[in-house]
Design goal:
Helix content: 25-40%
Strand order of the largest sheet: 3-2-1-4-5
Number of domains: 2
Number of strands: 10
CATH class of the largest domain: Alpha Beta
Shape: globular
CATH topology of the largest domain: Nucleotidyltransferase, domain 5
CATH superfamily of the largest domain: ATPase, nucleotide binding domain
Strand content: 25-35%
Amino acid sequence: MIILAVDTATTSCSVAIIDKKCVLAEVTLLREETHSKHLMDMIHAAIGFSGLKLSDLDGFAVVRGPGSFTGLRIGITTVKGLAAGLKKPLVGISSLEALAMQVSNWPYLICPLLDARRGEVYVSRYRLIAGHLKEEMEEQVCAPENAIRDINEACIFVGNGTLLYQNMLSDMMGDSAFFAPMPQNTIKASTVAYLSLNKFQNKDTEDIDRFIPHYIRKSDAEQNLANT
């Protein structure tokens, strides 16, 4: 099965094409510009590098959130359009699960942290059990100190929230805090694609018309309206 995957959840943007055995092509950029300026160019580049055509793809995967509200909308809208136009299935993947998968070879509790701004992080926890990544905490948004307050074991942290709050994590957890190698803090679309394979196999795909980003919290505009 050949999958094209997209991540636009943070300031990085990544596109990959995989089959079950290997990564056929992957392009990742880290820019301050809106992802809408280069996402389609990256998709076309990945397809060109892979030697395939759009019609050769069997399905699409995209990060559903949490993450940047604007970034998620751009990625999901783009992939939904491609999937609908080609009549191919679509799978949504958690940004936090993708980050956890990128350090799943470490024998510790895994705690992905994404910067949610306003002094908060998006967080979940995972553990590798019998070769499978298991979620141990529901995705949520909170202050970084609250995200780790009840961790009483060795834990590896990953994600851009880790980079932002690494000193605090070290101060609170001491020698029990481990940190992902720098490249693993950026979500790779190839990871998103491989996480989607089981969902495609089990036909756990999205209803394209109803598929929307998983934001966790309200946007600034919604919160401002609620406070008026």
